[in-house]
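Changelog-linked ticket: adenosine monophosphate example.
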Amino acid sequence: MQFTDLGLSAELLRAIGEQGYTTPTPVQQQAIPHILAGRDLEALAQTGTGKTAAFVLPILQRLTNPLASPLQKVVHTAPRVLVLVPTRELAAQVLESVRVYGAHTGLRSLAVFGGVGINPQIQTMRRGIDILVATPGRLLDHLGQRTVDLSKVQTLVLDEADRMFDMGFIRDIRRIIEKLPKVRQNLMFSATFAAEVRELAHAVLQNPALVEVARRNAPAELVTHTVIKVDQDKKRDLLLHLFAAHGWHQVLVFCRTKHGSDALAKKLEQSGVRTAALHGNKSQNARTRALADFKSGKLAALVATDIAARGLDIDSLPRVVNFELPNVPEDYIHRIGRTGRAGASGEALSLVSSDERIQLRDIERLLKREIETSVVPGFEPQHTHSTPRPSAGRPPAQKPAQARPRTGAGNRSGAPRPARSGAGGAKPASHHSGQRHR
Ligand code: AMP
């Protein structure tokens, strides 16, 4: 699915394009149609899933669509959308999203939160705003001083509702809700469905649509992420090399397509790696057998598509290999969620060719960090398009003046043996040249 399939306006698609996004994340795919249709929504989605755009985009669309909002021609001064958030940092982030995605809509927005002067907020509000993002405490201050008018609110968003509970805002939220028109659209986003969140949902939401994007099974921190840069046409050989060099067993390999999974599984099998493919064209019997054989250790590799891998429950899977990066960054989280479960450490290794740099950038944005990059001697990519990537916090790594001299042209087999780490695993990272390619 593409953003263009969601029925968003040209102004919004333009702003989305300017961000470099083409594919909506799962929470966006699921939530946007409901919100556009005017329904209430209860969404279980964590930060990092793209949840902000999931509510900001359809809200902007409804505010600019004269059919959904017949009073549009009237100049509004009071906000028609209220987004309640637990912290000032989140308020600033949500406002930023509203402004980025709404850049071509002409809608006006403001964030109010404590710790800064109230007067500039009052002045901006007087000039008129469409979307108000607020922390509960400061909004109550404004209500107390009658410097905000909530009587025109058509849509209420409770973002990170569980954190608002944790921070003790529930009574404030109830007081604020009392000031809103009774008929309105309500959207609630939460990372968990704790009992008190359910209770609030029950009290506030009217016949809500439910959207649940898969939890991150493994916190990204528990998993070692590595990118190996390699040319597309060398990926299969590299994968075989890694199996041979490290004696890998129980590796879940992800491909983007059914055809690609079949072709890769065949190649691995022909080269002596016991492999099965798992995808939607396989019969249920074949899938069950493949999974059982993989779990019992009969198969060293299971090559799967994203859809087929949903719901796979394999205990202590040591390693996931992304033979190709997913188009939707959220799928990367799903994939790595197959390893590092229950606190065990796991490894997510991605073979990335130069044509996948956009996907890699999006994944790093989602993870809010850069992924360590390396090359395997003998498989150095010939097609290196170095693109400047926005820093995810760390200063750019120093590029080594010269790659380490190779020991000879035929060093695929002569590559240094990986250092053993602990009882089981060979760490591919230690096998690499250790260069960072930025
Ligand atoms: P959020 O879950 O709203 O905090 O979003 C996490 C990150 O994902 C933000 O940096 C967004 O800019 C980014 N993001 C949101 N939607 C998309 C998308 N469709 N494709 C790629 N990145 C996205």
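Closing comment: Example verified and attached. Confidence is low (pLDDT under 50) at residues 387-438. DSSP finds 17 helices and 14 strands in the chain.
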